[in-house]
Design a protein that fits this description.
single chain, alpha+beta, two-stranded antiparallel sheet, two-stranded antiparallel ribbon, 46% helix, globular
């Protein structure tokens, strides 16, 4: 009986040490940077890591509508992955990304004017002065439409401070 008890203790001790080693290995792996790490300075889908939820930023200008990009047309810029509908849109973005990226990284300018980073919905947008703006809701888009200069000025003023609260 004592021999069996001793054998169980030895086996249990080995299993416990193995589990502890596995836990340490897992914690060490969790601390390593992941290739899909992104920035919060641009609105990103948390599940996919795609900028503006996978919508093609060039299509807003060429089609006047939000259009989902395709997986075979991707480009990494500003720490995030952007998707495009076709190779022409991808080439246009690569040539001049600042023209096509949403202003304020895709955050709602009305929220920014209130010093709050509220992610814009890529389906609610406006192009003003050749810049793409995304909005949280139709209500904030309406506020922007009525007071565009005032809202933009407030967002411009608040954006540097709000960016400091976001993960770079």
């Amino acid at each position: 009986m004592a021999v069996r008890r001793h054998a169980r203790k030895v086996a249990f001790g080995r299993a416990r040490r193995g589990a502890a080693a596995l836990a340490l290995l897992w914690m060490a792996a969790a601390a390593l940077p992941i290739g899909a790490a992104t920035t919060e300075h641009i609105v990103v889908d948390r599940n996919t890591g795609l900028a503006i939820h996978g919508y093609d930023p060039v299509a807003y200008f060429t089609d006047g509508a939000p259009t989902l990009g395709r997986g075979e047309f991707e480009h990494r810029h500003a720490g995030v992955v952007w998707r495009f509908r076709n190779p022409g849109n991808l080439a246009a973005f690569v040539a001049d990304p600042e023209v096509y990226m949403p202003r304020f990284g895709g955050y709602d300018p009305v929220g920014l004017g209130r010093n709050v980073a509220i992610a814009g919905d890529p389906r609610i947008f406006s192009i003003e002065d050749e810049r793409l703006y995304l909005f949280q809701s139709p209500e904030t888009k309406a506020i922007f439409a009525v007071n565009r200069e005032q809202v933009t000025a407030a967002a411009d003023e608040a954006w540097p401070a709000v960016q400091k609260t976001l993960v770079p």
